[in-house]
Amino acid sequence: MTTRTGLNRRTFMTLAAGSVTVGAGVLAGAGPAGAATASRTGRRLVPAGHLGIQLWSIRDKVSALGFRTVFERLSEMGYREIEFAGYSQGTGDITASEIRTLLDDNGLVAVGSHRGIRDFENGLEAELDIAETLGMKHIGTANAPTADRTVSGYRAAAERFNGFGEAAAARGLKFYQHNHDGEFGFAEDDPSVRLYDVFLGNTDPSTVFLEMDVYWAHVGKHRYPGFEPVEYVLANRSRYPLFHLKDGRAEPETDDGYDMVEFGVGDIDYRSFLGALTGSGRQHLIWEQDNAAQVAEPPHAPDSFGNADRSAERLLTLRGTC
Prior knowledge:
It is a single chain. This protein has 322 residues and is of the alpha/beta class. 39% of the residues lie in helices and 16% in strands. The chain has helices at residues 9-17, 25-28, 59-77, 96-105, 117-134, 151-170, 195-202, 214-223, 229-235, 270-275, 304-316, and strands at 52-54, 81-84, 109-113, 138-141, 174-178, 186-187, 190-194, 208-213, 242-245, 247-250, 258-261, 284-287. The radius of gyration is 19 Å and the shape is globular.
């Protein structure tokens, strides 16, 4: 529940606590992921009132309970920004205008949406209409730019995204692409060329933006070594308005190099990553965990709301080193 001052239970407790331990991993001696101890002097890395969530993480709840109940619960947890993964629910038909009302009623703001490339190819203006109704400033896709993993294939995909970006910009929106690990691989016809570099170098920086999924970028680094995820951001600060903060426990002997876990119990060094972004301007920091409904850190039972709640607490108390 939100108080008259606009502070919900989680935000009030976060501001009052001052200094807390971030994540169960600290007690277990886990790596640096969000599992660092917050200090009274450290800069808050995820500002209270700006924490976001990708609804894909709790898609089972949207299906079972509908947007109204989901938004109420998320607001209580301290989430304030919503990234959509579709506009349907399991409790009946709902319009974009009705979703917007539920957002407003719960003090939530739509900041982005993942849609398929085919959705944009078949109905770009309709997708932009929905984005405007929901009040979001960004819209994009979690699809790889193309399945054609050649240099020419990625150049052609970049041109297609330039078209999407131009249309979005005409409506005051930023069009973005969300990475997985495969985009960091090398071109089939030129093993010296990283596909992500082709996409980045051939898209218009004024109209095509990137949402870095930090977990999948680290998986990409494991599978296709030779880069640091944060260096892409630091070299292209204005192109990364959104980030997925997803944690992983290091498993270097596996293909991916990480197992996805709730935030704060893994080994991705978010204190360093987020700390390096100082001075990059306003960014949307969005929690996501693809498997939140299936796994949980003992002794907790699997439950996507439980993972969302614990992850929010750790994110909102995560501080830098100074």
